[in-house]
């Protein structure tokens, strides 16, 4: 009688579980923009926030406190900032599946930078008045850093007016020419600067009659008087 013996080999069982493959298709939710533009004290600010990814529709909200002067309305940071500084807050997004995402924001609030106008005394500070006469502003004003054009006004309106840099004389008196410059997103409006040009009504020269001319005039007047008495 023959006995047969068979041996079976079994691979050893590992005590360590294999790592799970990452879920590369997992949805994400991101809030844009990545950064916020600088805000300026006293200037209206309006910056929308939006979410991308996930399952639309999305909602974005800010649970914390915004800088002074701001509110979060209809997914928009909006308001007129009042206090300069650097502020932080977090925006949170949620989609229709319940997926959430968030982004931390830093918002810098700055004051408007000042700018000044240089407007020298006019080269001719006193001019003879002629009804409807004109003259040019000279020298012109130099503007500040905003790059906006310098504009001019003149008055009072019964004495003078201005178009561009040309002043029109209307009546004798002091004509005040004022230079102004608007602000920009960074610079405040410049303080207006005025210069005055006096419009002088020149005296009209009265002719002086000689003795002979006076004698002729006297005789003429006497003759006119005699004629008047005769006809009346």
From TrEMBL:
Domain IPTL-CTERM protein sorting: 205-230
Stretches of the chain forming a coiled coil according to its record: none
Cited Pfam families: IPTL-CTERM
Transmembrane segments: 204-228
Signal sequence bounds: none
Keywords assigned by UniProt, alphabetized: Membrane, Transmembrane, Transmembrane helix
Alphabetical list of InterPro entries matching this protein: Ig-like_fold, IPTL_CTERM
Protein name stated in the entry: PE-PGRS family protein
Species name: Dokdonella koreensis DS-123
């Amino acid at each position: 009688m023959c006995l047969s013996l068979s041996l079976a080999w079994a691979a050893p069982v590992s005590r360590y579980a294999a790592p799970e493959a990452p879920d590369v298709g997992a949805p994400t939710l991101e809030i844009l923009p990545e950064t916020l533009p600088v805000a300026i004290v006293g200037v209206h600010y309006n910056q929308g926030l939006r979410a991308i990814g996930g399952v639309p529709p999305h909602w974005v909200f800010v649970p914390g406190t915004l800088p002074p002067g701001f509110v979060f309305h209809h997914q928009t940071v909006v308001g007129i900032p009042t206090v300069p500084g650097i502020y932080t807050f977090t925006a949170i997004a949620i989609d229709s599946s319940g997926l959430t995402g968030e982004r931390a924001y830093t918002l810098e609030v700055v004051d408007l930078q000042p700018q000044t106008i240089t407007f020298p005394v006019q080269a001719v500070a006193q001019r003879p008045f002629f009804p409807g006469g004109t003259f040019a502003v000279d020298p012109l004003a130099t503007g500040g850093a905003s790059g906006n054009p310098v504009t001019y006004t003149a008055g009072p309106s019964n004495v003078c007016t201005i178009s561009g840099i040309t002043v029109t004389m209307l009546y004798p008196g002091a004509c005040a020419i004022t230079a102004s410059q608007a602000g920009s997103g960074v610079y405040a409006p410049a303080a207006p600067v005025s210069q005055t040009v006096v419009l002088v009504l020149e005296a009209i020269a009265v002719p002086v009659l000689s003795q002979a001319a006076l004698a002729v005039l006297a005789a003429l007047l006497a003759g006119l008087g005699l004629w008047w008495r005769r006809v009346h």
